[in-house]
Amino acid sequence: MTDATSAAIRSVCLFCGSSDAARPEYLEAARAFGQALAEAGLRLVYGGGGVGLMGAAARAAHGAGGEVLGVMPQFLRSRERLFDEVETRVVTSMHERKQMMYDECDAFVVLPGGVGTLEEAIEVLSWKRLDLHPKPVIFINLDGFWENFYALMRHSVEEGMTPAAFLEAYDSVDDVAGALAVLSGARAVPNRYDQR
Ligand code: AMP
User: Fold this and answer.
1) What is the CATH number of the domain that holds 86?
2) CA of 116 relative to ligand 1 center, distance in Å
3) Ligand 1 atom having least distance to the Cα of 113
4) Is residue 20 within 6 Å of ligand 1 at its C-beta?
5) 5 within some domain
6) How far, in Å, from the CA of 196 to the mean position of ligand 1?
7) Is residue 78 a part of any domain in this protein?
């Protein structure tokens, strides 16, 4: 496991939608995020696809001269149109993909997406819940996209399922610029979350 507590953020894992039917504003934000990462000298680690927000972010980062690592399960190569102009690692399973993306990054950023994005984001949050890692998880809450998720997390706290402190386990920013501000200023701090 990478010790991100002592190092500045250098690689950022992006979770985001694979849908080409997403609103143009979301695709544009993904593009802006990829470009901003490249300009900040940060490496993009992502799922390797050329579709949807994933493809928009990767093409923009690559186009702006940034370093990109895509991690793609073999069986999704054609379905998610592997973007092979960047470094790509082809793995055998979804679990292997997520483990590699986790191992290769110092922080996670979550843009709007579907059930796949949700699953990936919740997995790294669930690992935080178990104190398995200190890496920041930053949701970009474009047009309030993640409000319903935040409401569900608050509900879980109110119902006694999740400690209130867990609401501090993730950051929420309004836009790409906000995410870059956190990433450039942030050091991964030890998880303040207390399970008791
Ligand atoms: P979506 O948000 O549904 O468009 O999916 C975004 C990305 O998440 C796609 O590249 C999916 O292949 C990926 N994804 C979906 N489920 C999983 C999973 N269980 N493990 C790893 N990646 C996943």
Assistant:
1) 3.40.50.450
2) 3
3) 2
4) no
5) no
6) 32
7) yes
- From the CB of 81, is ligand 1 less than 6 Å away? no
Q: Return the SS3 of 17.
A: coil
Site to substitute for ligand 1 among 26, 117, 126, most atoms within 8 A of C-beta: 117
Give the separation between CA 112 and CA 23, rounded to whole angstroms.
10
How far apart are the C-alpha atoms of 155 and 193, rounded to whole Å?
A: 18
Q: Same domain for 51 and 115? A: no
Last residue of a domain, one of 105, 122, 155: 105
Q: Does the residue 31 lie in any domain?
A: yes
Determine phi and psi for 100, rounding to 5 degrees.
-70, -40
Q: Is the residue at 14 inside a domain? A: no
Share of the chain above pLDDT 90, in %: 89
- Give the per-residue pLDDT at 25: 98
CB of 94 closer than 6 A to ligand 1? Answer: yes
d(CA 27, ligand 1 centre) in Å:
17
Domain containing 145 equals 110-187
pTM of the model: 0.92
Coil, helix or strand at residue 15: strand
Predicted confidence band of residue 43 (pLDDT cuts 50, 70, 90)? very high
Based on the structure, what is the number of domains in the chain? 2
User: How high is the pLDDT of residue 184?
Assistant: 87
- For the cut 80, the answer to whether the pLDDT of residue 66 exceeds it is yes
97 lines ligand 1 (CB under 6 A): yes
Do the Cβ atoms of 98 and 64 come closer than 8 Å? no
160 vs 193 pLDDT, higher one? 160
Of 57, 75, 105, the residue at which a domain comes to its end is 105
Q: Which of 101, 112, 107, 120 is nearest to 29 (CA)?
A: 112
Considering the domain architecture, whether residues 126 and 159 belong to the same structural domain is answered as yes
Gap from CA of 51 to ligand 1 centroid (Å): 12
